[in-house]
């Protein structure tokens, strides 16, 4: 029969475990034996049910088979329970003996030989017969005798088990109660049958035929031990950039990130510095319905004594969690709870956990999911993300794997991995094992999608990427092709080319944002998260060729004219991807082209144009000029000379397209080669020949003289270089109408004059002359004083003309001037706030190494030796160029000498 009183269907004949009377010689005997065992089993299950409720009822102990089937002793009362099972109605004859025997029991209590008020309770699975029912309504029926059945609970002892119509009903009720036992190590039904067996054993006289309430925890096999702990920290813990504390003012924090972002490791490390005791709880592989109870066990085991934990009230999991929290709150104990893999729980389940622990510091760790947005809103918080490792940490990881990485390569790794720890570690390992430690080769292969070993980053993110709808994958592909942040209107335009309606594209962007695949900017622009780019690029490969070409053409038009460095760099790469090299070479002819970090990927297209005999001679000439200039800035003198030779051949064999401008350009490049070769004779001859190619007083003449001065410097003719540079500077200054007061005045005033000028490039050439004069004098041993202050106007002019590379270089000259003058704080301010920021903003990684070592030595001059040495130690993970290495050694020697002065003399 079911618990609602309906009758169960009888087992079918021949069913397993069923033996019909026809199968035995004496069917009546079988029915009698079966009924007897059924009655005893019912009695034992009922006693087990009483045990499961014993602590809730606040009873002292339970006895079996003494004066009655079951006896329960309280401080103030004593219950005598007789269990009667019947297939028909219960009659007066069934209970008469128990009622009459109870007269004697009552007398013992009245005489004081037994304590407490006695009560007789007859428990039955049956309905009351008419006769018995009539007797219970008579005034003579004893007030201390009650008949309890399926629909007749005891009026006072409401905690008593509900009698089932049959064994199955009673077993269901007991199982439901067993599920409420806090911290049980057995399944509920197993616990019930174990208790029933222990009751049966006690009925034989074992253990004094009684169960004390204090003995129930081991009988229940309550397992109040902490099962979870933070994962083991790595031998060397590397913190995230700007790593936060574990707890904050917010009672609940939601920290999200892709798998491998280092959330758990961060929490484990931060726990050691948390002012509150911390419990770690991972919900992975735990059924969501079991999470509250399992978390309650962890908290009880860590923060409550075992007796306190074992005597928590029987309740469902979330109620046990609330009970644990209540005891901690009563004791004034504030705890921190880290719940890992919280994305596996439904938002309502997370809210329920937070509601059950109102005074705890709750830190939720999980993967980004769309449903976390309303969850965070409900909790009144904003989802957070760890920043990942800094560039120095990435360099240290690669150095630990014996990989060769310069500053620029580490920046590329950072862009590919977003600094997420697992991705960086895996990248360093693959670089070491599959690319012979060559970080550049690894980055090239990953960006070109030619690597043959899948990275952990790809495996992890591909799983997340597969959860996206097709429209979201398409928008991710568009963002991957774009590479740069896009405004809403721009993204909509590309989406239309891909066949997406605006509403669908907007929905796709929301889906990507909800999974943290995108990053938003204040101006409403959106771009892909760096870590997602490699995987999203594969989605771009799935687009039809015609669609991809259309997207690139639309993007090219969209970015044309934009001068933000990322947008300009992407536009240049698009020029090469769409075969428009001529426009790229026009751009390379501008003064500022080489002043910021141009995309190195465009070199291949320019080199191809230079060697393409089918192209126009002037185009090939310009291409070799661009390649020669790049080689000059890279310090690759052999390559520079090779391209200058190619320019000479083209000029000799060229057509009318090679005019005065091109011949002056060639002369300037020849100056570089002759100067580096220290061939002053040929340099002077080339300069004389070059002057004949330009008109006196033309714009080309001072530019040629400036290039000659640069070549003299490279040739070691520092005094001549200084003289020529000063002469050209005076010519430019007079032509531009700039006084010495103008150059020493506010930079904003110079900026206004530049904008109003018809020849802005001449401001940059004036700066070149000032800078060269300072460098030449320094090489002659003049390190400071009035003769080197030209570095200041050079720095200003470079800054306003966007010549960022030279601005940084001349800015360092200014720093040295300030240091020599004892103005250390101002020098440090320029290094940190202006020069380093400029190099990072305009993608000049090759200059950052030197700037940071310069910063370190400036700190040492200020007396902060520990900070100086820490900065130099951070740089040790990078592979420097020979020039950088020499500079690094010089700076370190200065720092160590300054440190030696600070040490007290040895005794």
TrEMBL record:
Signal peptide: none
GO molecular function, one term: nuclease activity
Domain CD-NTase associated protein 4-like DNA endonuclease, chain residue ranges per copy: 35-92
Pfam families linked to this entry: Cap4_nuclease
Protein name in UniProt: CD-NTase associated protein 4-like DNA endonuclease domain-containing protein
Provenance organism: Streptomyces montanus
